[in-house]
Amino acid sequence: MLEHKYDFGLVGLGVMGHNFILNVADKGFSVCGLDLDQTKVDSLIASGGDAAKVQATTKVEAFTKALSSPRKIMLLVPAGKLVDAAIESLLPHLEKGDIIIDGGNSFFTDTDRREAYLKEKGINFFGSGVSGGAEGARRGPSIMPGGNKEAYQHIKPIFEAAAAKFNGEPCVAYLGPKSAGNYVKMVHNGIEYGLMQLTAEVYHLLKHSAGLSNEELAATFDSWNKGRLQSFLVDITAEIFNQKDDKGEGHLVDKILDKAKQKGTGKWTSQNAMDLGIPIPSIDIAVSMREISAFKDLRVEAEALYGKPTPKSVDKADFIYKAEQALYFAFIITYAQGLNQLAEASEEYGYELDMAEVAKIWRAGCIIRAALLDDISKTFATAPKLKNIVMAPDFVSKLKETLSATRNVVTYGAENGIPLPGLSNSLTYFDAITSGRLPLNLIQAQRDHFGSHTYERTDMEGIFHTEW
Q1: What's the pLDDT band for 2 if we cut at 50, 70, 90?
Q2: In what order do the strands lie in the sheet with 54-57?
């Protein structure tokens, strides 16, 4: 049996779990870990130093008995069946009022199912998104919890202490009931897909059209990171271009195979957006491009078959200037799409999300943290019912001033055979969402013609059908 009572328990002592426990312990809370792998248990005990502050075991019963009441147990295990297995292993040793927190990337409907199941047993269940990777877990992630509001008060001090800070404010907040936290994290990851695709497209343009060297790319992205594009992704992109290959000559980025993998959260975002009828084309195409990238052999054969035009020469300084504007424009549009999905889902699923709070807890610690999010948070604070930031006066001016350069860059890509689907989809979304009339009247006519699906009219009320 363990000798002490611990404030917080964590199941799953991989890199994320190991780091998060040490983070919580650094903030003054005692923590106990559980893992079936003795090596991981020993590693944590060695890292923790003081057994009164950090302890670990492979025994479920010893773990649960070592936790103070109500037990606060976080799971950092892979999403899916392992989460259910972990819950079942804990249940015989828990009491009413105890709390289980799923800190993985679980699909939100799984969280709803688990929450309802555990509620019947008197156990509080939280789906809590955690973003920031291993470094974030150790130094301070963005945390997105959803579940029982009253029970949250028991974990609030721990989460607020462990979370990243932006101007002293913790990047964590109670988001809403049931799966609100997992849903917000899912859309966070969808936005992440979009921003990464956009950054890759701009890199492609600057390298292959403007002819920037890796050193120049690093300097360009570093300078952008000091301005309005300041963000985690732009920052690490500058670092990537500076990284030399430790296994050969040149820079590492040039040796990495152009096949991007994914774990599914971006796909979930797209699938659910379609279920809700919410357009998020910048995110959708980012998912599709990762899928297209997997067809490497086909792409190489097709390029040999069709060829590629030689890109027209550009003025380097002017092109860099326009590329920055286009990336800023598309970043705004991608955030707009994801946040619009959150606002609509909040109504559909009863989350009652505070959109200003969502943007605030993304300002530090998470992968999509960016200077833009402070502007977005302030926008929602003054207009809580706003559905889409493209309608906010501050963002109207930002989009208007970058629109011409975006059109120029997208046109250049189309004329020179350079795929810019993220940039072009962002522009198309903007053009469509700002069009008072779209040609979908013809689609309704076609649907009525072949399937008697009816239509509405612009000049009178009612539902109509025509024998064409």
Answers
A1: low
A2: 54-57, 31-34, 8-11, 72-75, 99-102, 124-131, 142-146
Residues 177-215 pLDDT 10s = 999 999 999 999 999 999 999 999 999 999 999 999 999
1 pLDDT tier (thresholds 50, 70, 90): low
In 147-231, the DSSP E strands lie at: 165-166, 169-170
Among residues 192, 201, 324, 357, which one is catalytic? 192
Query: Which of 53, 72, 185, 398 is flagged as catalytic?
Result: 185
CA dist., res. 140 & res. 161, Å (int) = 9
Tens of pLDDT, residue by residue over 262-307, are 777 789 999 999 999 999 999 999 999 999 999 999 999 999 999 9
Cβ–Cβ under 8 Å, residues 13 and 21: yes
Residues in CB range of 48: below 8 A, 6 or more apart:
21, 22, 25, 31, 54, 55, 56
Measured CA to CA, the distance from residue 271 to residue 350 in angstroms comes to: 19
- Supply the pTM of this predicted model: 0.94
pLDDT, mean of residues 34-45 = 93
Dist. CA 465–CA 454, nearest whole Å: 5
Is 165 one of the annotated active-site residues of the chain? no
- Residue found by looking up tokens 């966070």 in the block: 188
Fold of the CATH domain 185-433: N-(1-d-carboxylethyl)-l-norvaline Dehydrogenase; domain 2 (1.10.1040)
Q: What is the CA radius of gyration of the chain?
A: 25
Contact (CB, 8 A) for 198 and 423: yes
Superfamily of domain 438-468: 6-Phosphogluconate Dehydrogenase, domain 3 (1.20.5.320)
CATH annotation of 8-178: 3.40.50.720
Q: Is 312 a catalytic residue?
A: no
Banded pLDDT at 3 (limits 50, 70, 90): low
Residues 6+ apart with CB under 8 A from 180: 127, 146, 346, 349, 351, 353
What gap in Å lies between CA 457 and CA 462, rounded to an integer?
A: 7
